[in-house]
Amino acid sequence: MITEFDTSLPSNRQLQNLIKQALPTEIKLLTNEMLTGKVIWQDHHSICLVDEHSQQTLIWRQAIAYIRITKN
Fold it and tell me: N or C: which end of the chain has fewer CB within 10 A?
């Protein structure tokens, strides 16, 4: 059963804002790996980040320690 994506949740709204504004973002994983780029989409289970080389990385939400806006 597919449930509708809840855009009223603060975390989803903040990620949507990052997508709309194409803000440079850091995503730290639970493995201590740091990924940088711009979030281009999100769904229930994952986030897609594109880096400066246009390489897309699919990140499972469960693997994320934190997300923050970076200063350019």
Answer: N
Q: Are 55 and 42 in contact (CB under 8 A)?
A: no
Residues 44 and 66: their CA atoms lie apart, in Å, by 17
SS3 59: strand
What pTM was computed for the model?
Answer: 0.85
User: pLDDT for 2-47, tens place per residue?
Assistant: 566 777 778 888 899 999 999 999 999 999 999 999 999 999 899 9
Two tokens, residue 11: 């975390």
Q: Provide CB contacts within 8 A for 40, sequence distance 6+.
A: 19, 48, 49, 50, 56
